Amino acid sequence: MTLRQRCDHVNALYSSISAQGINPYFRPIAKTWGTEVEVEGRRLIMIGSNDYLGLSHDPRVMDASAKAVYEWGTGPGGSRFLSGNMVLHHQLEERLAAFVGKRGAVVHVTGFSTNMGALGVLVTPADTVICDRENHASIFEGIKNTRARLVTFAHNDAAQAMQRVEAAKASRPDGDVFLITEGVFSMSGELAVLDELAAIKEAHPDIIFYLDDAHGLGVFGRGGRGAADHFGITDKVDFIMGTFSKSMASIGGFIAADDEDMLRYLRYQSRTQIFSAALPAANTVAVLTCLDILEREPERVDRLHEVTMRMRQAYRDIGLRIGNSASPIIPIIIGSDEKAFQFSRALFEAGVFALPAVYPAVPRGQALIRTAYMSTHQDRQLDFVLTVLDRLAREFGVRECDMVAEPG
Ligand code: PMP
Fold it and tell me: Which residues form the Aminotransferase class I/classII large domain (predicted)?
């Protein structure tokens, strides 16, 4: 397809859903209070945010970020490699490493660029990368750039991952073998089978085990130390990658490891580190303040799980299909893309903000509404959301009981 044909194809898709008034994307939020937002003059309950601990609106985080602007200015003035490297970045690296249980860490400007930059220099064309099929786009993009052999395994199927590892080692003895998974899957809310994957690393210590814990950090493990901590397998993971755009109320990312030589290699070689500007001070200080709060108030994480467990049970009671969610991300499986767009619009009309995920973000025919909860959601907000969901589930026929096949 030519550029014009590709452009026309995408425009036709979005014009069609816009004409029906159901385009959910790029809707401008006019105001936000964290758990509530104003869009097109309506006040809505937000159940689509990754700010799981609600720290983005914590006055301590906001004050510290505002002060950082007055102390450091708004922009970093350069990449960390050259003129944008601040003591704040090094303080944050030490704190993060200690938090996730590794010796060191390297901070990047986004989570996406952390995966792109790290995988870009860790992996070469001689290597094989074995990935859970549902890994995030930034992992697949990062690997694509390396021209390594990419092999996927069925989602959370550790036995298949083991077979793939053994086959790769036998067929390409000169290359490295990487095993990559997320800690918590961003669309399904499922936890990875990290204990089983760690057993592969134990059986094959020469492989490189890389964990993207974007959605596990601040959510799982002791006081939010992440999914590896939750499973007690931190020492089996070679690289733990995380982002600041979810529980850490900021933007940015990091990669942590025990091997300090490897971290120095990443710091000096990752192209997204060298050729991209540093994380601004306000964002860096926001994360430092979140870590202070998390260390002092681990009960925030407990409250998040309380909210999550309540909502998961209530979804099941309504009869919604939520797959194997085990985290604050609870998908509502709808089916067709169009129905998901309509469901999202109906939520909007009823006062709830949650967006659909459609192919290719999820498998075809399994479009879903991605809902996500925060420790700061109040019970009255949750009650309201459940009343709306109960009504819409019936109206749209998306309950488990509506799915029973017609006899004959
Ligand atoms: N990894 C995962 C699993 C993600 O879900 C995301 C973003 N949603 C990223 C990486 C990229 O992180 P960021 O948005 O902080 O760039």
Answer: 45-386
